[in-house]
């Protein structure tokens, strides 16, 4: 019984072996590189495959199926090889992309054009500034010969009085009150600009002691014009503290008093050319010697030859 079963099994094995087809030897595993999109486009436009840098071999359908099957089975067996194959396809697509180079070239061209345009703009601005500066310096140099003509013509003492009194702290002393008027001749000889004229306070001094002060109103003098400026110089209740010996005890006979004084001030003239971009300035310091005489009150004292003018 056991022998019969053994024979039967041998027959079964023999029949199974005879009926099963012989196995074909395992083909070697290989990889096929698919063409990139750029090469496909070249082939679609009629380019010859022999002219392209890559040569592709056409194989029957069953070979492509077998190759894809073998690649899939190989990917299951060796995942690292499948990742390497995908990486090769990705690198090939990036290498075949020619549009990015063109875009970079176009971007570089636009960048160069922008740099050239900025260079021209900077050159234009610098040239304009240089020319405008030169033109302004020319105007400033051309205006320097047109200095205003200033002369102190005369001075009139309307009132002169001395009386006993006390200062703000209660110290008894002689108090001086003085009213006078100064006449100043002003002329603008410029042919192409007017001037704005101001002045520092007009002050009457007996050496270091200030006796009277006057303020001249500012004015505008147009080109090639002139005027006579009148300014009041006043002193009210000025304490003397014995600083003027000539006036000590002269309260009763002021008609015989003669006191030398100094009139000082600075006249400032400023022109505005091209708006406020070119502003020539003319300063003139004036010192005039004048004598206060008690017997000549209300009369004009000629100061034409009694003043010193410093620019």
From TrEMBL:
<feature type="region of interest" description="Disordered">
    <location>
        <begin position="1"/>
        <end position="48"/>
    </location>
</feature>
<keyword id="KW-1133">Transmembrane helix</keyword>
<protein>
    <recommendedName>
        <fullName>Late embryogenesis abundant protein LEA-2 subgroup domain-containing protein</fullName>
    </recommendedName>
</protein>
<dbReference type="InterPro" id="IPR055301">
    <property type="entry name" value="Lea14-like_2"/>
</dbReference>
<feature type="transmembrane region" description="Helical">
    <location>
        <begin position="119"/>
        <end position="142"/>
    </location>
</feature>
<keyword id="KW-0812">Transmembrane</keyword>
<keyword id="KW-0472">Membrane</keyword>
<feature type="compositionally biased region" description="Acidic residues">
    <location>
        <begin position="93"/>
        <end position="111"/>
    </location>
</feature>
<feature type="region of interest" description="Disordered">
    <location>
        <begin position="81"/>
        <end position="111"/>
    </location>
</feature>
């Amino acid at each position: 019984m056991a022998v019969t079963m053994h024979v039967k099994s041998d027959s079964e094995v023999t029949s199974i072996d005879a009926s099963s087809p012989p196995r074909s030897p395992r083909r070697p595993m290989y990889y096929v590189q698919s063409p990139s999109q750029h090469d496909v486009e070249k082939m679609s436009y009629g380019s010859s495959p022999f002219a392209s840098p890559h040569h592709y071999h056409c194989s029957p359908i069953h070979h492509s199926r077998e190759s894809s099957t073998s690649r899939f089975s190989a990917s299951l067996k060796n995942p690292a090889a499948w990742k390497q194959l995908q990486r090769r396809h990705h690198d090939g697509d990036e290498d075949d992309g020619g549009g990015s180079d063109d875009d970079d070239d176009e971007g570089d061209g636009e960048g160069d054009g922008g740099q050239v345009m900025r260079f021209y703009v900077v050159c234009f601005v610098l040239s304009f500034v240089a020319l405008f500066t030169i033109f302004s310096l020319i105007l400033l140099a051309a205006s320097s010969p047109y200095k205003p003509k200033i002369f102190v013509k005369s001075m009139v003492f309307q009132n002169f009085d001395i009386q006993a009194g006390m200062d703000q702290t209660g110290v008894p002393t002689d108090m001086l009150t003085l009213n006078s008027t100064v006449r100043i001749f002003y002329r603008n000889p410029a042919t192409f600009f007017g001037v704005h004229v101001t002045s520092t306070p007009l002050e009457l001094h007996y050496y270091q002691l200030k006796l009277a002060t006057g303020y001249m109103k500012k004015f505008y003098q147009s080109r090639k014009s002139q005027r006579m400026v009148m300014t009041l110089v006043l002193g009210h209740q000025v304490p003397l503290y014995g600083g003027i010996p000539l006036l000590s005890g002269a309260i009763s006979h002021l008609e015989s008093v003669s006191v030398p004084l100094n009139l000082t001030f600075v006249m400032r003239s400023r022109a505005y050319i091209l708006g406020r971009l070119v502003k020539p300035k003319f300063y003139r310091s004036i010192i005039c010697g004048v004598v206060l005489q008690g017997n000549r009150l209300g009369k004009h004292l000629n100061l034409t030859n009694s003043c010193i003018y410093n620019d």
